[in-house]
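Case study 2.
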Amino acid sequence: MRISVMFALVLTACVTVGAQSSSTEHDAVSNILTRMQSPARSTRKAAFQEILDLTSAGQIPKQPDTPETVNKLLDRNPNQADAVRVGLINLLEIETTRIHALHSLSRQVTDKGKTIASETTEAGLAGEDEYYPKLIGIVAALEDERAIHALLGAATTGGMATRAVAKFGDKALGPTLDLLKDQDSMVRSSALFTIRNMLKMHTLRETSSTHSVDSILRASLQDPAFIVRNSAISAIEYLPNREELVPILSDLAEHDEQRLVVDASVGVVYPVRLKAKRLLQKIANHEQRPVDADAVR
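Prediction:
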């Protein structure tokens, strides 16, 4: 009888300790999510690191932007999983807004005609740490459609963001096409790379999406910025009807006016002409489009 009573007391104590531990961790996560909204970047960065620490007991892998890491993060506190997802997405939007503001500031000119280059803009634009790209990777790994706009905001950073958006296919096409109205040619180019990934991954299933993409790519071949024209050619490679664009590509291969001086040994090159010629050769040789290992089947 005495043993039974003692066992019951021990069991009760364990349950109580477990509940207290769970409550403590719940409070910790809530506190971290609050600090993710701080006006201070250093506070937001520290809070993000803490949310990763909860996942791996302080052992942060070199590439934490994997589904396994994110799932551990969410499984640890299932009752707060959605709050954590939303918190990370909001954090990416905050940091992307900050980066865009720094870029805008760096493009402003003073009365003397010199570019403003304060310590803040220099540090921010130099990518002084891995915080921002790590955050992009984590949000990309969430595979949450609520993150489409946040990831599109980071599209100019490269493949992590554009591939993540491309996985949503038709759902993400509208917001992606909206980026093609942006005045920044890098933004327009990134939008086309996102479309390229959609075509490559076969995530565009609706007929209306295919028609929209075809029209947009044709129009983008006339974009005043050569990097946009180049990006359009990259996407056209994955169009099912790419042969229909041979006349337009042939014209670019012969007459595109963009020229670049590489160096004394190479001299002048015409990047758009070169890219158009390469694609025309692939089409003529009936070369198969590369298979994407990440294609959604």
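The beta strands are 260-261, 268-269.
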